[in-house]
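Repro:
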Amino acid sequence: MATQDFKRKLAAILSADVKGYSRLMGEDEEATVRTITAYREVMINLIKENNGRVMDAKGDNLLSEFPSVVDAIRCSVEIQRGFKVRNEKLPVHRRMEFRIGINLGDVIEEKESIYGDGVNVAARLEGLAEGREICISGTAYDQIGKKLPLGYEYLGEHSVKNIAEPIRVYKVLMEPEYAGKVIGEEKPKPTQWRWASLVAAVIVVVGALAIWNIYFRPPPIKPASVERMAFPLPDKPSIAVLPFTNISGDPEQGYFSDGITEDLITDLSKISGLFVIARNSVFTYKGRAVKIEEVGRELGVRYVLEGSVRKANDRVRITAQLVDATTEGHLWAERYDRDLKDIFALQDEVTHKIVAALAVKLTEGEQMRLVRKYTDNMEAYDSVLKGKEYKYRYTKDANVQARQMYERAIELDPEFAFAYSLLALTHFQEWSFGWSQDPRTLEQAFELAQRAIALDESLPLGHAILGMVYLWKKQHEQAIAELENAIALSPNDADGLATLGDLLNWDGKPEKAIGLVKKAMRLNPMYPVWYLWNLGHTYFLMGRYEEAIETLKRARDRNPNFLPAHVYLAASYSEHGRQKEARAEVAEVKKLSPHTSMEAWRQRLPYKDQAVLERLVDSLRKAGLK
């Protein structure tokens, strides 16, 4: 980067994101996209009104700069107060709460982008804030004084990832009763420093022994944290791979670090001797400042892998460390600086280092599957990673954008098997979500999945898509066989296990399905709403209506627009003799899908045993669905 291409300046940086965004998307992606679009427009307008400039607004993240700290904090308060009013009109579980961090620091400006520690500190402050909160740095606090009718709470100094020195953190108190007040200890003002230094010297002399005990004596190992796990530890080494931090200085490179993280999860999931938490759950920690012990406790794992990625031109630097969450002791750490073309060999090496550190023995098949190389074309690989970023937005438009990326990857490398499987997935999602009325859509998914497996039969995703297509073709034996193949290739694939459970339900084997769905939930503790529907469907088929009702109500409450939850809840209420509640759910079904009919359900639902289908139809008719 030539010096004439950028300039340095001092700026107030505002970084914002949505608390629990992954959960909101998992429960109802379309409603979430509508809400975030409306809220983002409000934020952009307020930023402009307060003399700010939006630098990035992707997904749930928003980055902006202001010439004045006063403008930045005034804007953030207006945002939070405005969204509080808007959120009151939404159900509690659908409210969109923003976390905001503000820092005054030196940044590098290049064209329409800003980089540097000034930006990174704002992002870290955002991660320290809770929903509806604003956290500011000490540098911002020193400038704001009493220029605004606000209060502040000193939260102490915090050491944050990739920032060398601890940062002073203050929370903005927006309630009128706090105006002009500061809670907690403040940083001494310059005129107070001589007195503060004298006091500090006395404290140091008097408290030397206490300081030694608190800060320098090695902390004791506390295996008791195992007892506080949210779930019992598995009987094999358990691991969660946290999203690797993008330290490239370019927020647009986030897709690449996310892709590296997902590749490592995919590779580790192929190892039967490990217990690997699913992507859906670990990515709820993205951008958050969390403690390793907290992650281990919440996910019920002993080991956590964390790291960072820096990509520049044709070079990539990856750092990774494996930590025991019960002791916070490091088992292994390494830094790699390689050519980008060596990225697959690098990932293989990291995977084998983890396996060695945890003393896991690989089977012969696993050893072969872990030696993989997707493609020799780095541009094709990059297109796949960009496509996967769109994939997880679960909207019609994002699905089209993902497809374009995968098609580009195949143009660059016609033998890229993984790209074919992802392209097949876009067609299957288009069909299953009802985004396309083209009868060939499902067949296109089928043909592309077959092509992927022909190029690489060890691709779990290719087999999984084939299995799902076979199900909707009502070829149950082939469907189950393909999903069993997928799980044999990736024993820790939570979605694969839940999907196999779904297939067994349609095949009339709910007794076998229930264990698979519950295992998927353990591998993916922050599971999406369709897992709950899956389990509720299982209970319904087994005649366990009280458990079906309880489970399906949880699915409905998490996503009121999830039609299958209402349908099977109505049927479960009907079978349980609770017709009033059944009719209420049927009313919701008609509201969500006004043109639905029993004949359409009879034609579409892939039950192997027609008697089971008729039982469902009869219970829904009793509840008032025609």
